[in-house]
Every structure is written in structure tokens, then in C-alpha cells.
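User: My advisor, Dr. K., asked me to get a structural model of this assembly before our group meeting. I'm new to this, so sorry if the format is off. These are the inputs:
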Amino acid sequence: MDVWQWSAAEAGARMAQGALTSEAYVRACLERIAQREGDVRAWAHLDADAALAQARARDREPRRSVLHGIPVGLKDVIRTRDLPTAFNSPVYEGGLSAAGGNAASPLAFPPAEDAHCVAVLRALGAVILGKTQTLEFACGGRFPPTRNPWDEARTPGGSSSGSGAAVADGMVPLALGTQTGGSTIRPAAFCGVFGMKPTWGRLPFDGIKSFAAHLDTVGLYGRSVDDLLLLWQAWGLSEPDEAERPVGPARALRLGVCRTPNWDQAEPAAQQAFEGALSRLSAAGVTLLPCELGPEHAAINTWQDEIMQDGGRSAFRPEMLAAPALLHEEFQRKLGNHLGLTPARLRAALDAVARCRMDFERALDGLDGALTLSAPGVAPVGLHTQGLAVFNRLWTALQVPCVSLPVLWSPEGLPLGLQLVGPRYEDGRLLEAAARVATLFDPPRHPWN
Amino acid sequence: MDVWQWSAAEAGARMAQGALTSEAYVRACLERIAQREGDVRAWAHLDADAALAQARARDREPRRSVLHGIPVGLKDVIRTRDLPTAFNSPVYEGGLSAAGGNAASPLAFPPAEDAHCVAVLRALGAVILGKTQTLEFACGGRFPPTRNPWDEARTPGGSSSGSGAAVADGMVPLALGTQTGGSTIRPAAFCGVFGMKPTWGRLPFDGIKSFAAHLDTVGLYGRSVDDLLLLWQAWGLSEPDEAERPVGPARALRLGVCRTPNWDQAEPAAQQAFEGALSRLSAAGVTLLPCELGPEHAAINTWQDEIMQDGGRSAFRPEMLAAPALLHEEFQRKLGNHLGLTPARLRAALDAVARCRMDFERALDGLDGALTLSAPGVAPVGLHTQGLAVFNRLWTALQVPCVSLPVLWSPEGLPLGLQLVGPRYEDGRLLEAAARVATLFDPPRHPWN
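Assistant: The format is fine. Below is the predicted structure of the whole assembly, which you can bring to the meeting.
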């Protein structure tokens, strides 16, 4: 096994024993990137020397945490003090060199401060490896050039395209993304990696380009549930009642089965893979119970879209005022309230979602989570699509935590995600349940095997 | 009338006619600050030369908007590209000089990027005058040194202490603050200025230190409703149905009267002033209708506190990890989940608030807003208190827009705020209604009269 193939947990254990340096691990990742980046195009900004300097500095220090010396990729909507942040937008290009801004791009700024999530990871000793490609502003407009490591003709999914692809391709063991619609879970499914959208608001969004306040969420990527746990635990959010209600062994799990009102949009192969997974879980002793959403849930994706589009009315106003010629017309449409949303319609959407949230969590009572698909099928062909988010937008609107497990496969061997959804604030328990579920499937596959 | 006494609207009209330069207006504000700052202590960072340079640059340009050349103060939790941002926290002191951070304060950063709201104002030609004093992180810990311009022995209220006091004292016509509990409306009431907490999420919080995601809101200050409108309109958020439901003349207003479940905490003088205001409005032809909150609303302030304290579990983690010795113990307590909040309790609080929100907006149906007090009384004596937020926290939790009008006065001549509350997303209508209400009272008083 090559060094770059090790998970964060495996590499961290070796570092703790003195059997691996951060420099060696980071160098292995950089070499993998050098070899593969021409094909995968996952990175927006990379400074190999700076990353190695961080790694050497960590190697000279006492270990600060389990993340000490571990490289992390960051979606390029997340601000960093030592790398540019450009959101894949021409408005912010040139920020590294133009300290005072420049005439064509007056909002471009030099790197200066870490987003909240970056400050947490850096303080714990993680090495900020680079910035990963994103759909413009994680919202629309310009597509990233990133290709799916499983099939370069296919999208890795978006908008956290580079984070999903880089982790899948062995370029970096961990990465952060964001999700406002389906931007974390969808790339996790299409790229065959583990992904997590935590409970909305649990990880501060401070320092990340906002799109829609009710929905914007930091996302996590890894190549195992253990690695997602390493990232999640960085925020120190264990709940006081977790010890009282431990997640039991896999065979004692009680999981809901939630095909959602959009099941007819799932491809037959995805539906078959899902049903196969249920059989496997059932055979392993897992208790599966129906967890269907009532008819009032059918419109959640529409309400989610209204809430999301409304965010666009103010999110891109600085760019519209300062550099309209550089702002893709899609954002200009959003600024113009292209759906004609009224206050009454927005309140109705938000309140309907609030009622559905209460209903769904009541349905989860006594369960360890609900199973559904992460995406309606495999990654579509083409780099100017992201695929559909029909199995993501409802959960984003409900603000509940979701984990995507790369344990389902299409007949042609492309990844499909199995999604586990839990009640708000039980992110830690949900990850524990996801770890149990993962043990009942074959070990993860990788595009390099 | 001295130049510094002009409102933003008055000064802007003169600038549009060529009868006033931004430089002259900014210079007048700076002179007022030089004269009064020793007593009021409203400013955390001020760079007079840089402010004058901005003003001269605006004077050389075509006017960009009604805010062109108008100086604005910013609470020092709002990031700026040309001034330090220190949150009144020792963790971030020294950020101006220490480009790479310093050993004692590793998170201190140089100014580099404007918060979303600052970028909007700057693009519209506003002059960023300086940063105003705040309670540490707009949350707790270290109090600001700011004194109330009406009585220097009293607090200006917090946490947007400097913004409220600076506008009240004629140092700057407009300022931004934030509100997570009562941090915008309370200083507006105590300082006798107009203040607005918009609908949660309407103005992106991007670039402002977050405390509690469900509650954090940008706040606006001015010395008239017209000036609040100048600020509000900067975001371009007029609603498609506003023209269909125009706010009528003052005598045609229909307002609810909402004494809230905490009316017994209002001081007798405040209650009397409120009842006097109702008589005055009624005599002017305003239709006043009961808008009482049901018994289920009695606990909103408790739920608001749980939601707010929960935000503190993650908000201050970077500071706790990187510079624990510089982080006030109050934040360390918050990080430790000092209320012992469980996921179930948080969900219950959020869902109960969501139900109250639906109830309250149903009660507002057919009304132009609801009247209540902005604060339970006048500013308390002492600079190590902020006063109570019992008449603010419920509205912050409900995420509805609020405007405080300085039209009530205590027998000793100190300001008391009359608060007008509306349904979500009807911020523009609420400001129009507030403008009508203001015409039925005597013109604003100022501490310098």
C-alpha cells in the first residue's frame, strides 16, 4: 500500500508511533497530485512548498490532536490566511497578488484570515494542503473543470467537486466542502467517498461565502467513517446524553427506510442497489422499519428551492455592485428575484418545512437513523452538469445531519451512495451508526484498484 | 445647526446639490469625535486620515447612490479591509501590525477583506469612518468602555454599545451593529436613536463574528427612520408585492398592542410612557388592536437563551484552541455546554419557537405591525451592565424585523424606546409604518440640545 493510500486515521496512528512524519505523508499526497491532477483537475490553489513547510513545522512540535500533521483540502469558498480564496469567480481572481484590489476586480483580496472551520483544524495541527475546485460561489454560473476519478467523462458532482474528487483519488485523505442544496452528499455519492452534512448551524459558517442562510452548511469528506469522525470530533461537540444512549452493535441497529416522495426519480439500478442493501442489512440482523414521509413532504424540494433562491437575492450584491461585468448572469437573475418570491410565500415555505421537520423527527423516534439513497443514480456524463440533488435538498431544508456511505455500486462498477439521516444535533450518534452500517458491507473500493 | 448634526438624508441631499462635500461632512464628524470621544469612548479603531482620504475620493467621483460620501460606523465584530477587527478580545489585538500573527495572539490578523455588509456600503460610496466599541465578541466577557451620551454614568446598552452611542452623540449619522439577543434594539432605546433589527437571514452575516447561527442578525442605526431607510435600501430588497399593499397615512395605520409575557418586568415609568404613546396614537386616528401572545410564548426567552448558549459551544472554539489564556472564562464556560443542553432539549426549543413564530404572524394578519417596548426602562447606571433584553430576545428568536423609535421619554428626560415589530420579510413595510408612527410624536431629541 502506498503512503498516499492511507486513511487519515491510519496515517495518524503511524505518526503517533513515530513511524511516519507529516512531511512524508504530505509529500506522498503531493506526488499523487502531481501524477493525477492533469486528469482529475481537483485543485484551485496549491502551494506545495507552503504545505511541506507546515508539515515540517508540525513534525517539530508535540502532537496537538489526532489531526496533527494530517493534510486537509478545502473547497475554495472557504477562506484561508495563506492561500487565495476565489470562489471560482472572476470577481475574486488575482487576490493573491493584488493587496489593495485591482481595477478590473475590486473585491479581490489577499489571503488574510482563516474561516472558523479552518482555524479549528489548523489549531489542532492539520496541514492545509490546498483549495479545491468548486462551482462558482458554490451556487451556479461557472462549472469547475474537475473530472470524476472513476470515469473522467463524468462529473464528480457539485458543488464541492474538487473536495470529493481529491479524496476519492487519493490526493488528500480529508477535505471540507459545503452544502446548501446537495453540494456535499452528491459529490460523495458520485465519487465513492464518505461524506457528511452535519446539522445546520452546528459548525459555524463564519468565513465561508454565504448563499442562503437557512441552508448553508459545512460538509466533511473522508475515505472511512473513522476519518469523518476525526474531522467531526475536531469541533468537540459530544452531547451530554450520548453515553446514556450508546449505539449498539450493528445487528442491534434499528433503521428506518425512507424512499422519499421522489423515489420515482431514482434510476432502476440505484433502486435495485438500495433494495439489495436492505436485504443485506436485514440478513445481518438489522431491524428495518418503514419511515415514509407523509404527503405534505412532497413539496419540500420546491420550498427548499424558494428558500435557496431567496438567499441569492442578497448573497451576491457586493459583486453585483462592485464588478457587475465579472458576475455571471445567473447571479444577476437571482439578485433580481427571478421567482418573484413574496414575503408571504417565503414564510409559507419556511413554516411548512418547520412542520415537516417536526414530523420527520417524530418518525425517527426510537430509530438509529433513516436509510435512503444519496443520489438518484451514478454520476452523469459531462462536466457541465452536477447531477440532481433530489435526495439532498429535502434534508438540507430539514437541517438534519446526513452521512453518505460508498457501499452501493452500479452494475458497471460506478459508485452509488447509501445515505443515513438522523435527527438534528445527533451527529455523533449518526456517525457511530454509520460506522456500524459500513461494517456490514464490503470494504471501500477505490478508483486506483 | 452644525454640519455634524445633519442626518445622512439631509447631508446626502446637500451633497447631491453640490452644497456639501463628503470631506466637509466627514471632517465635521471627526471634529465632533475629537471633542467628545474622551467622554463617550465609542470608538475602537479610527483612522481619521484614511476616512478623509475615502471622502476626498468620493468627492472626485460621480455619485454612486444616496449613501455616496456618507460616513458609517461599524461595530468591531464586522470585518473591514482597511481597519483592524478585534472584537474587543485580547485574542485579536495587534492584528494591524502582525501580518503573520504573533506568538501571544496567534489568531490576530491584518485587515484584509470587508464583511458582506461593508462591501455593499463601500460599493455604494459610503465612507467607512471607523470601528465602534462592542461587548467582547458581541457576546460576553469584556465590557466596552463606552458611556451613554445622555448620562455618562449609564451604559449605552450592549452589545452594539459604540454604534448606538456614536450615532446618538452626533459622531456619525449611520452605524451598523448586530443582534443575537438584544444587541441592536437595546442600545437604540438606551441611547435615544432609531435602530432596526431586520428579518433574520435577510442581510448576510458573512464576515461578521458569529455567535449563534439561528439568531445572529446585522443591525442598523440612524437618527431618523429616513436614515434607516437609506441603510436598508442599500441591500435592494424591495418586495414584489409592496406596491400592492402600500402603507397608508398615519391615521389609517392598524397596529397591534403587544405587552408580551414579560410586561411585569417593565418599569412603571416605561409602562406609563407606553400607555401615553397609545393614547397619542389613538387620538391621531391610529387603530389599536390587542395582539397578545398566548401562554405558550411565556418561555420564548428561555428557549432563545438555550439556542444562543448552544451557539457558544462552537463559536469560540478557534480562540479556545489557539489562545486559551486570552479567552475570557465566560466563553470557556459556553464551550463547555454549561447548561447541559441535550439534542432533544435543543430540538424542543427550536420547534417551540417555530410554532410561536407561526402564531405571532397569524396574530399580525391585517395589521401594519405590533407595538411594544424596546427595553424595560431607561439605561441602568454603570458600565459593567448592558441592561435587560427581555423585550428583545423573543423577537430575535422569532426572527422577525423590529424597529426602535426614540419617541418615549422617562420623567427625568432619558430615552425609552417604542418598538414596532412586523412579520418576516416585510422589513420595508415595517420601516414605512415606523416612519408614519414617528410623525405622530415630537421631533427627536438629542443629548446635545
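One thing worth pointing out at the meeting: Confidence is low (pLDDT under 50) at residues 96-101 of chain A.

User: Perfect, thanks a lot.
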